[in-house]
Amino acid sequence: MRLHLREHTLDLSRPRLMGVLNLTPDSFSDGGRYATPQAALEHARRMVAEGADLLDLGGESTRPGAEPVSAEEEKRRVLPALEALLPLGVPLSIDTRKPEVAAEALALGAHLLNDVTGLRDERMAALAARHGVPAVVMHMPVPDPATMQQHARYADVVGEVRAFLQAQAHKALRAGVPQVVLDPGIGFGKTLEHNLELIRRLDELAALGHPVLLGASRKRFIGALTGVEAAEQRVAGTVAAHLFGVSRGARLLRVHDVKAHREALAVWEALGAQEVARG
Question: Where's the Pterin-binding domain (predicted)?
């Protein structure tokens, strides 16, 4: 399986790492740290050196209860950084739910559209189709992150998430989007048990035939399981969740801690190769 990102192609025969670049002052994990273009560029270079295969740029926090950001403010945060990062030579993803932001980012040269609302706004799919870039379709029970946790109710969380992703992927492809990536939306309108069940049964999403992205990095459910309150210290739990996700078919991992994941995957892949050799 391959993911075609304009002039870049990612071979997904092995898991790939998407480095998180938050250009927001209020992100749950590293808010404000990379809010200037220079700081963003330095952090991006570090993630690429550590092994990031692509970078995901976001200018609006989507944590539960986060304050909304205007399109103009989001563009002010994201577009200068995007322009500064393009010469790095790695694919860049624009993480936005606003068509106005997506339009300018894609026109500048962003390689992937990552929409937490699952392309509910048809203008998003139209933009990805017009620019010939893939789109990440993520599940969230409602399109507003501020109220999503009030809707964390499912009869069968995996079945309902799967049905939503399948329907939205079908609409996107019909609209001309060249490829879609599926994201179960860990932590977005989900309880601890919902998150665990989705990761346990990730293979049911992978069976739909599209690349699956898993983004559990430093999230609250990791802290609930480990007792680690500080988001930046949830690295070990995050790596464990992501490795399990890889075993269930995840091909892309959205991570804050690139080096730790690259090292863990190197050992994971070596052990897998030894198993094949013994077989």
Answer: 15-266
Confidence of residue 105 (pLDDT cuts 50, 70, 90): very high
pTM exceeds 0.85 for this model: yes
Per-residue tokens: 206? 């992978």
Q: Which residues contact 41 (CB under 8 A, 6 or more apart)?
A: 81, 84, 85
User: How far apart are alpha carbons 150 and 140 in whole angstroms?
Assistant: 11
63 is an active site residue = no
Q: What are the tokens at 11?
A: 């071979």
Query: Residues 219, 234, 248, 262: which is the catalytic one?
Result: 219
**120-165 confidence digits (pLDDT tens):** 999 999 999 999 999 999 998 766 666 667 667 888 999 999 999 9
Q: Catalytic one among 77, 218, 251, 254?
A: 254
| Selection from 269, 210, 259 nearest residue 238 by Cα | 259
Fold of 19-60+75-278: TIM Barrel (3.20.20)
3-state helix, strand, coil in the chain (%, to 5): 50, 15, 35
The verdict on whether 254 is a catalytic residue reads yes
